[in-house]
Amino acid sequence: MAGADDHHWRTVPRRGNELALRLCSALVLGSIAIASAYLGRGPFAVVWSVAAMGVMWEWISLAAGADRRSALVVGGAALAPALALAATGFFVAAVVVLVIGTLAAAALVSAERRSWVAGGIPYAGALGIAPIVLRSDSQAGFLAVIFIFAVVWTTDVIGYFVGRAVGGPKLMPQVSPNKTWSGAVAGTVAAAAAAIAVAKTAGLGELLSIAMLAIGLSIVAQAGDLFESFLKRRFGAKDSSHLIPGHGGLMDRLDGFVTASVAAALIGLARGGFGAPGRGLLAW
């Protein structure tokens, strides 16, 4: 006789399959990210430029409505040269091109969607340019990127599993009903532990400062995750696209990395300048 137990056994395999897809996708994407960072500035810039273009496409597809085609053309025309400039070290020029492209895109779309559509260009540009800035440091660029990967990925993974296992009060239910305070706190603590592990392996000092940096970046990453959830809810979408099996779209996978990498790049630039952003981030 069919009943609750039958429903349970039909549901569990689906959840197991979804988790397997998430794990496989994460392993593939993580391997590409780490390998490109190890191979050097050129391959790394190519990978993150492709990711940035994909994120821009997802954002504008969500937000632009009938103005999608013209916004994509203008956005691509601005983002591609901006990323090329960043890859060759012309970071200020890259930002100027992004600003011009953002203003042009805003002029092409209807007033009620203008700010949302235009926002996709600097958002995607930030995803591409911030990690390229960090990797540009010839001495500490690779380590800086690995550090950000460790913080963001640990926050995401531990937060996901602890949140599902422990549950408890919701973090921001009106924006993301599945995220809990238990997952957020666990992800932040785990990020600090992962950062200390990376720092000790690399022989960095001031582990307390590194842990505090990781905590701040973990919180910023979670804020980026919540912002992307808010964006999808604003436009009635469950996922930003269906590009990645088990994860949805690139924005769904990289939402926390965008904000964390921007914060890390700004810290690195403030302390190390354009010549040493990786050392500026990690040397305390």
From the N-terminal CA to the C-terminal CA, the straight-line distance is 66 Å
If strands are numbered along the chain, what order do they take across the biggest sheet?
Answer: 1-2
Q: Give the fraction of residues assigned to helices.
A: over 70%
Alpha plus pi helix count:
10
Q: Which geometry do the CA atoms define?
A: globular
- Radius of gyration using CA atoms only: 20 Å
Beta-strand share of residues: under 5%
Largest sheet: 2 strands, antiparallel
Structural class: mainly alpha
Can you count the beta strands? Answer: 2
pLDDT averaged over residues: 91
Instruction: List the secondary-structure elements in sequence, H or E.
Output: HHHHHHEEHHHH
Q: Low-confidence segments, ≥5 residues, pLDDT <50?
A: 1-13
Could you explain the architecture of this structure?
The protein is an all-alpha fold. It contains ten helices and two strands, in the order H-H-H-H-H-H-E-E-H-H-H-H. The chain has helices at 4-39, 41-63, 68-87, 91-108, 114-135, 141-166, 181-202, 207-234, 250-272, 277-282, and strands at residues 170-172, 176-180. Strands 1-2 form a two-stranded antiparallel sheet.
Relevant terms:
284 residues; mainly alpha; two-stranded antiparallel ribbon; 10 helices; 2 strands; disordered N terminus
At a glance:
The protein is mainly α and 284 residues long. 79% of the residues lie in helices and 3% in strands.
Secondary-structure map with pairings?
Layout lengths: L3 H36 L1 H23 L4 H20 L3 H18 L5 H22 L5 H26 L3 E3 L3 E5 H22 L4 H28 L15 H23 L4 H6 L2
Antiparallel strand pairs: 1-2
